[in-house]
Amino acid sequence: MHSLFLRFFLSFWLIIGIIISAAATAGFWYAEQVRESIEDFHLSDPLFEASAALDAGGPIALKEWLQDYEPARGITLFIIDEAGNDLINRSMSTWTERTYRRHRDHDKLRSRLSRRDEPQNLRRSRHLSQLIGGDGKTYTFYVSASRIPESIWGDSDVRLLLLIFALLVSGAVSYALASAISSPVRKLRIATVSLADGDLEIRVADSLGNRRDELGLLGRDFDTMATKLQGAAKRQTELSRNISHELRSPLARIRVAVELARRKAGDLSEFSRLDDEAERLDSLIGQILSYTKLEASTDRKFDVVDLGELIGEVVENVNYECKADAAKGVKVIAHTAQKIEIRGHPDALISAIENVMRNAVRHSPPNGEVRVAIKRGETNTTISVSDSGSGVRDDDLPRLFEPFYRTRESSESNSLDGTGLGLAIARRAIELHRGQICARNGAEGGLVVDISLPAS
Questions:
Q1: Is 336 domain-assigned?
Q2: Among residues 300, 291, 297, which one has the least CA distance to residue 454?
Q3: Which of 33, 177, 232, 355 has a CB 3.0–4.6 Å from the CB of 422, allowing a cystine?
């Protein structure tokens, strides 16, 4: 069946058809049971019994006999008094009441007619049998088919069988239909989540089999989309890498030209500005290369890393850089005495933690402090880096780890510090370790970056 619409349509049609067929079969079976019961029922025996009860005890005995009488299944015996009511006050169907009125009207008409007015060869039939009590009152017998709740649904075996049949059929069809829909949708959802997490090699066509309905087409379209996204990401990574490499050559020539110009013209302030800009451009190119390298990384083989020793090394390097910048004098303080081992890429972890620390140093006031804390839990290890700056706006927090994103304050102040890639590199490096990184404003001010890595 190549169409999901057709599968839905036929499944619902099948359920409706089964219900109609079951109802028609049950109705026909009931009608046949009632017909056979009425045909096999002989009124003479209960009529004689009722007559004897009426002679012996009058209307009260007749009423008691009717209450105790149990006719065959599918049959209901009414005894109707002259007022048109059943002796034991049971409700009668419209058809029963109509039949009784016709019988009563027929008797009245017959009593008014003279036998001399009727043909000699005519013998009228009495529609319904009657009993005459000692007080002259007439009691009419009427045999009726029982109502369905009394004859069919009153049988617990029949109700149980019909219920089991309905549950089995509807359950089987519903299960098949639900499985046909939910299974491929579940596979597509898992593949979509994997694709969103950066796994561009995920494909679903093989897992969906040879389906040729709409879900099969959707799976093949998903694979086509994933292939195109993978190609686009690969081309983008190659483009960024190539551009970065190509920029290094003219940048090196610019530095040589600046140095030659300084020798000829002397040490002018403009040359120092050109050196600073060239240094900043070289740093930007280096970060772009680091980011594209992490984006293209698929190596999942981890080594054992002493996280405390690694953080100590990074803190030492960042503090050395801070001493070189005498204008700020920011100091990084770390509490990493304990030995914590995890599995990961040492270079990627150093790049991530170093970029977070440098960002904290950059946004701390002169002579401020950057604190690094490490905490080991049962399932993960958390590294918290907090600066002593003013923090950022709450609506900027989710976007801090986007490439080239700068906060509103940085944009408004036209600050040249930072490239907008440091935290993006840190996020990519942590994601390679199946960890998480997030930023929040500290309770006492400043920005806090939490890095969570799975425990080894």
A1: yes
A2: 300
A3: 355
Q: Which of 306, 439, 456, 437 is nearest to 380 (CA)?
A: 456
267 within a domain of the structure (yes/no): no
For residue 273, give both structure tokens. Answer: 């500005």
Does 442 map to a domain? yes
Q: The domain spanning residue 418 has which CATH number?
A: 3.30.565.10
Q: What is the distance in angstroms between the CA of the first residue and the CA of the last residue of the chain? A: 49
Range from 52-66, 207-221, 362-376 carrying the lowest mean pLDDT:
207-221
* CA atoms in the 13 A half-sphere facing the CB of 96: 20
- Give catalytic status of residue 245 as yes or no: yes
Q: Which of 2, 245, 335, 363 is catalytic?
A: 245
Q: Is the dihedral of CA 58, 64, 67, 70 positive or negative?
A: negative
| Cα-based distances in Å from 66 to 58, 59, 129, 328 | 13, 11, 15, 111
Residue 96 lies in a domain: yes
Domain that holds residue 135: 41-113+126-151
Give the tokens for residue 90. 């049971």
- pLDDT at 150 (0 to 100): 46
Per-residue CA distances from 86 to 91, 105, 128, 142 (Å): 8, 18, 15, 10
Q: What is the CATH number of the domain that holds 88?
A: 3.30.450.160
Q: Where is the domain boundary, 101, 135, 151?
A: 151
pLDDT tens figures, 231-241:
887 777 777 66
Cβ atoms of residues 101 and 140 within 8 Å: no
pLDDT digits (tens, 9 = 90+) for 92-114: 877 777 777 777 766 665 555 55
Find, among 281, 285, 275, the residue nearest to 255 by Cα.
275
pTM over the 0.85 mark: no
Number of domains in the chain: 2
State residue 449's pLDDT score: 92
